[in-house]
């Protein structure tokens, strides 16, 4: 009798989770299934309109994609751009989180409100505002720094730098708030003891706070990698679809161009599957690091 009761009790959590799991299955699992299915088919505008039958291509779309030199160039640019965004976001967010612990209540509140305002701003709106700020004719940035009619979106690296600034601006609040909450949870006696031993602020962060905040830092790092790796709106809006001759393409914009601009939906789906596998590998690597360090998942 007791064994039967325990077995019935083991199913109780799953019964509570069932509605959420069904919803996630409809919103996530089925679209991913369709994405993978289309990537194995010949699916262009002709098949969408019903003019030609859909045929199974196997790995043919992936072979075509991997044979395209532009794909590898875009993949490399995406990885480097995402890495720069992640490092910059973490640096700004962590620095401001430490600053929040050093200022009084009113400046702290003002900084929090300003940061949350940046976080809540839609990507399209934020990108448009940044385009105005750096506009070669009317933007205040060029006037303040005496850059004349310098166009930030004309050069490849200057355009990437401009987008990076906007991505960091709308992303650092998440890191700042999360790390600040973690710092507040650290016992004050630990930090005071390090200060009494003569440790500077940078040494306190590196030797005391950072090790204690490792689980939080891992979470914000993985989240930032996922967000920055699949950046679309900022690149599309600020570089007008990928820059001159596609010099500022990233994988998400490249997939959009293949799928919708060229009506090669199967190739666009294949790019989406590749992105999904890369991000899945990053997530699994994150979970593996947590397990190695003995942290709770």
Oligomer: single chain
Main sheet characteristics: 2 strands, antiparallel
Task: Give the number of DSSP strands.
Answer: 2
Count of alpha/pi helices: 14
Q: Provide mean pLDDT, rounded.
A: 87
Helix/strand order, N-terminal first: HEHEHHHHHHHHHHHH
Span of the ends, CA to CA: 33 Å
Low-confidence stretches: none
Derived from helix and strand composition plus strand pairing, the structural class reads mainly alpha
- Binned, the helix content reads over 70%
User: Could you give the order of strands across the largest sheet?
Assistant: 1-2
Question: What does this protein look like?
Answer:
The structure is a single chain. The chain is mainly α and 297 residues long. It has 14 helices and two strands. It has a two-stranded antiparallel ribbon with strand order 1-2. It starts with a helix and ends in a 5-residue tail after the last helix.
Search tags:
1% strand; 297 residues; mainly alpha; 14 helices
SSE topology sketch:
Layout: H1 2-39, E1 41-42, H2 45-48, E2 55-56, H3 60-66, H4 69-100, H5 105-120, H6 123-133, H7 140-144, H8 156-185, H9 188-196, H10 201-212, H11 214-229, H12 233-238, H13 251-261, H14 265-292
Antiparallel strand pairs: 1-2
Helix pairs in contact: 1-14, 3-14, 4-8, 4-11, 5-8, 6-8, 8-11, 9-10, 11-14, 13-14
